[in-house]
Amino acid sequence: MEKVLIIGGGGGGLILANHLPRKDFDVTVIDKDEYHYYQPWFLYVAFQGSRRKIWKPIASLLKPGIRFVKDEISEINLDERKVYGTRKTTYDYDKIIIATGTSPDPDSIPGLREIYNEYGDYHSNVQNSLKLWEHIKNFKGGTVALGQAGPVCKCPPSLLEGAFQLEEYLKKKNLKDKTKIKFFTPFPRAYPAEQMNKVVEPMVEERGIEVMTFFDVDTIDTKNKVISSIEGDSINYDLPIIVPPCKGTKIRIVPEKVKNPDRFIITDKKTMRIEGYDNAFAIGDVNTVPTSKTGVTAHLEAQVVSNLLQGVYDEFTGRINCPFDTAYGKATFVIADYENPVVPYPPTRIKHIMKMSMARIYWMTLKGQADPIFDYYFDFTNPKKLNEKYATEA
Amino acid sequence: MTEATIIDSRGSACPGPITDLARAYRNSKVGDLLELWATDKGVQADTAAWAKKTGNEILEVKVDPDKIVVKIKINKR
Description:
- The complex is a heterodimer.
- Chain A folds into three domains: 2-102 and 248-309, FAD/NAD(P)-binding domain, CATH 3.50.50.60; 106-245, 3-Layer(bba) Sandwich (FAD/NAD(P)-binding domain); 320-390, no CATH class.
- Chain A is 29% helix and 24% strand.
- Chain A contains ten helices and 22 strands.
- Chain A has helices at 11-19, 42-48, 112-119, 126-137, 157-172, 194-206, 295-309, 349-366, 371-380, 383-390; strands spanning 2-7, 25-31, 35-37, 55-57, 67-70, 75-77, 82-84, 90-92, 95-98, 103-104, 142-148, 179-184, 209-212, 217-221, 226-229, 234-236, 239-243, 246-247, 252-254, 280-282, 320-327, 330-336.
- In chain A, the strands form seven sheets. Chain A has a five-stranded parallel sheet with strand order 5-2-1-9-20, covered by helices on one side.
- By secondary structure, chain B is an alpha+beta fold.
- Chain B has helices at residues 17-26, 43-54; strands at 5-8, 33-38, 57-63, 68-73.
- Chain B has a four-stranded mixed sheet, covered by helices on one side.
- In chain B, strand 1, helix 1 (17-26) and strand 2 (33-38) form a beta-alpha-beta unit.
- The radius of gyration of chain B is 11 Å and the shape is globular.
């Protein structure tokens, strides 16, 4: 029986645990939190005041026979094959998978902590999303500065999704004429991948959202309400909606060289193996795989590791499939892989229904019960095939 | 001669190589050399626009069969 230790009860950790046959593997999942959250819904908590219950106990999301331990890990020693918890507990393993996700870092930018505490955001947690909703609900007009502080962020579409949600809300409340939405981004265009930008840019313009490109937040002067960028520009704001930079794990890892300066774990982009170790993997947002930090990546990486642990050859193709709510009842998906660029996939009502349905089938997905649907879907929406249909240029 | 920091962004389609460049720029100082490796064809136009905006210098763009290499010198930070 092989002893598998999974650090983190997010999407990647749970999908992997539930895919390993219990007759061959002794699986333990460790998380510092007792609950698992459906993070894509934070958007609707913050911009629509949704009160949907988007959390479930991690233990209830694991198949029988899988152990769950609530503990805050302080150190993972890959050379000794030992993991240290906070209550002087020690765990050993044959195989380890680090799936801790990212952590918001509002302290790395001067002034951001104050904004984070006062206004919240829509990436970190339910409490912060509710805090932001309180400010949006009571907003009476002025300049809203919305964007990401720092180039590394979870879910690339979520930034524009926030701007689109806000615009729709302001329009409904008749506040549009009294408001300016300034969307700032460290990238050359509103959406970083050019092919998708071509699809959404006309909507950004039509809705009067002003885009400030190459704007990477340097400092925030909360007294005078000014955000300044590394590139030398500035924005005056009345309401700041700022997604903090995200960093990797705070857990100490031995050897330290497997982490990059932003605390992400240096991982092989096809096998998810941590550089230099055959028995250690990193999946989901915590790794350095060159693709979007998104649930679908964690999901597909978990399946790759599950196959590899069972001795079945597999590799991650870099597939992404990020739902992108363009507001007014429509959505699209950002689809690509390592070999194929992002598809210029137009927003439709049916894609919006699909995005909304995901909130329901998500819990089945974690247990692997929705695998046949996903296998069919991923084949149907293969980026190579879709590009043949939608891409206007090679 | 300062050794170039290699930023390996090959395979990245979204958010793309410019994310990795922006991150490296954040951690850089004047005089640093960066070498961005990418497969995304948009990298040439994006880095040129980036260099113009930030006041940094593109020393060389090399198109290899398996990757595009953009060499950058940080003049302003």
